[in-house]
Amino acid sequence: MSKIIDQYHVKTEPYYHSVADEVELYEAAYSVRMPMMLKGPTGCGKTRFVEYMAWKLKKPLITVACNEDMTASDLVGRYLLDAKGTNWQDGPLAVAARYGAICYLDEVVEARQDTTVVIHPLTDNRRVLPLEKKGELIQAHKDFQIVISYNPGYQSLMKDLKQSTKQRFGALDFNYPNHEIESEIVAHETGVSKEIAEKLVSIAERARNLKGHGLDEGISTRMLIYAGSLIVKKVAPHAACRVALVRPITDDPDMRDALDAAVTTFFN
């Protein structure tokens, strides 16, 4: 057992700057093994938060990047052929439930609804996972918890969680940190000066104001860290911002010009 689960322990402390009471609320939720839902825009720190909490609680973390081609078997497991014949291999959800890990389903709305329903028996008082193909019922380990995340900005009638799924979870809202905290995060993660970090955050704030007015999504904290990392490597700030901030989020020439102008405002 130890060999299987040890690889999922977060060995070193991930840097995470709390912005409110999310750490305390999550600790309370974990103490009663409440399934948790993290909602917020892309690149705002949801995954880093889960990694930090797994480290803080000293629990293994199994992360699944959900996608529309993912099947229930990808989560719970399947029979595989090898040299010795047919053998059952647990999926990530089954491993987490069996050995007591936090199972993190990232961008869960990308998965088909008929796939996500397999988590239902684990998210109520039963805390079980039926392996129908194997004829086994896993009783979840006492340390097991399930966490899901998604970006509400991408919701649609076709891609949303059922109420029967949502109401099994507690929820924490995430957003981009305030100017001071985000600047501190960018400076810490990249090594740029506080002055440059503040300029990068100011550019992002201008872009975020354009969400819904030409941009589907604003510049994320993750993208700012990319830009800062390039600047530390002696890339000119204008070029770093063009590569890491402007070009990835839009192909519209007018929008690119507007964002390039914002960059020039702060890095003239």
Report how far apart the termini are. Answer: 58 Å
Q: Based on the structure given, which CATH architecture of the largest domain is correct?
A: 3-Layer(aba) Sandwich
Number of domains: 2
What is the number of E strands? 9
Order of helices and strands: HHEHEHEEHEHEEEHEHHHHH
Helix content: 40-55%
Largest sheet: 5 strands, parallel
Count the DSSP helices: 12
Can you give the mean pLDDT?
Answer: 94
* The CATH homology group name of the largest domain: P-loop containing nucleotide triphosphate hydrolases
Structural category is alpha/beta
CATH T-level fold name of the largest domain: Rossmann fold
State Rg: 21 Å
Helix and strand arrangement:
Elements: H1 2-6, H2 22-31, E1 36-39, H3 46-57, E2 61-65, H4 72-76, E3 77-82, E4 85-90, H5 92-99, E5 102-106, H6 113-116, E6 128-131, E7 136-139, E8 145-150, H7 163-166, E9 170-173, H8 179-190, H9 194-208, H10 221-232, H11 237-246, H12 253-266
Parallel strand pairs: 1-8, 1-9, 2-5, 5-8
Antiparallel strand pairs: 3-4, 6-7
Helix pairs in contact: 8-9, 8-10, 9-10, 9-12, 10-11, 11-12
Can I get a quick summary?
By secondary structure, this protein is an alpha/beta fold. It has twelve helices and nine strands. A hairpin with a 2-residue loop joins strand 3 (77-82) and strand 4 (85-90).
